[in-house]
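Hi F.,

I've been meaning to write this up properly since the lab meeting, where we talked about keeping a consistent format for the predictions we share between groups. The idea is simple: the sequence comes first, exactly as it goes in, then the structure tokens exactly as they come out, then a line or two of notes. No screenshots and no reformatting. I'm using this chain as the first example so we have something concrete to point to.
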Amino acid sequence: MKIVIQCEAFDLGAEVDAMRRGRTGIGAIASFIGLARDCNEGSGVHAMTLEHYPGMTEKALAALVDEANSRWTLLDVTVIHRIGRLLPGDPIVLVAVASQHRGEAFAACEFIMDYLKTQAPFWKKEATPEGERWVDARASDDAAAARWNTP
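Output, unedited:
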């Protein structure tokens, strides 16, 4: 398991290569990369600044990965989330999940990303032509995470 909060961009190819290096039991790696957009809520976005709560953020992400491991048989997980000032097109987050079978890799990757959007302590501020604004949580993100709840 690899969980990293960093300012620098990441390299998907290098991360996947590191995940699978010397491990022939991996049958699938599913990945997700989130990118900074140039438009949100009908306004142009020139840049976005991401902040987090050091220590707490890593623990929250580790708990998400632990929960995914309890639901699916996973061989490895990488979560990299950037902080600092990002421009449109910049990569923000990488979630990569390795398992023996694609179904588990896809499901766990989506689960981790859905919960990361709603439960990880990150704060986003957008720079728009109208000025800076904090980005509120979206109901659609809460709905995506809620579908994983089991009775």
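Notes:
The beta strands are 2-6, 28-35, 39-40, 43-44, 47-52, 74-82, 84-86, 91-99, 122-128, 131-134.
The two ends are 28 Å apart (CA to CA).

If this format works for you, I'll send the rest the same way.

G.
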